[in-house]
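Protocol step 4 of 5: obtain the predicted structure for the target chain.
Materials: sequence only (see below). No template structures provided, no constraints applied. The aim of this step is simply to have a reference model before the mutagenesis design in step 5. Sequence pasted as it appears in the construct record:
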Amino acid sequence: MNTPVVFADVVEAADRLDPIAQAELIAVIKRRLDERERQRIAASIEQSRREFAAGQCKPMMATDILKEALS
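Step 4 output (structure tokens):
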């Protein structure tokens, strides 16, 4: 069973690391966040492709897309 981690405890633990380890921790977290973002984008692209293949998309001009996005 996973024990909940308190954010303040994580920050305190990071404060106890030496500067090099802190920089490595930041790099690891950034890589993981970047990978999650890539996975989110890939899932969105796959969803869009399925919608297109199913005929759920219609051609639109860029100005129409902007109008719809801003409304």
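Step 4 remarks: Residues 35 and 41 are 10 Å apart (CA to CA). Residues 19-53 form the longest helix (35 residues).
Proceed to step 5.
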